[in-house]
């Protein structure tokens, strides 16, 4: 049997992590799994129109899967608005405080190497967290 590449494992882990973040934020902002509020513009969108947007740009490995720095954003804010950093900063400051912001900024500068096995564990963790969200929402 062929071993899974780090790249493929990372994509699978990101798919589950992104889904978890969007579901978490939909439940937190609207109480449903079908719609959620964008963390930066405040508008409500269908789940499929939300992305898991990073507060720290660049998606470096050290912050890629840090739940504190990833939240539901609409495509307009995340992609076309380049993350809407001033608005995102204000949200982060109110929600987590400046200490967490400083931690995430410092973490970005660290080097994190993933193995395929690490990433498969992350994928499985977020699949389980998704199941918990749905069981709690029912």
Present the secondary structure layout:
Layout: H1 6-30, E1 35-37, E2 44-46, E3 50-54, H2 61-64, E4 70-74, H3 75-80, H4 85-95, H5 98-108, H6 116-137
Antiparallel strand pairs: 1-2, 3-4
Largest sheet: 2 strands, antiparallel
Beta strand %: 5-15%
H-E string: HEEEHEHHHH
Taking the alpha carbons of the first and last residues, their distance comes to: 39 Å
Strand order of the largest sheet: 1-2
Helix content: 55-70%
Written account of the structure:
The protein has 138 residues and is mainly α. The chain has one domain. It is built from six helices and four strands, in the order αβββαβαααα. The strands form two sheets. The protein has a two-stranded antiparallel ribbon with strand order 1-2. It has a two-stranded antiparallel ribbon with strand order 3-4. A hairpin with a 6-residue loop joins strand 1 and strand 2. The termini are far apart. The model has no long low-confidence stretch (mean pLDDT 94).
What's the gist of this structure?
The chain has 138 residues and is mostly helical. It has helices at residues 6-30, 61-64, 75-80, 85-95, 98-108, 116-137, and strands at residues 35-37, 44-46, 50-54, 70-74.
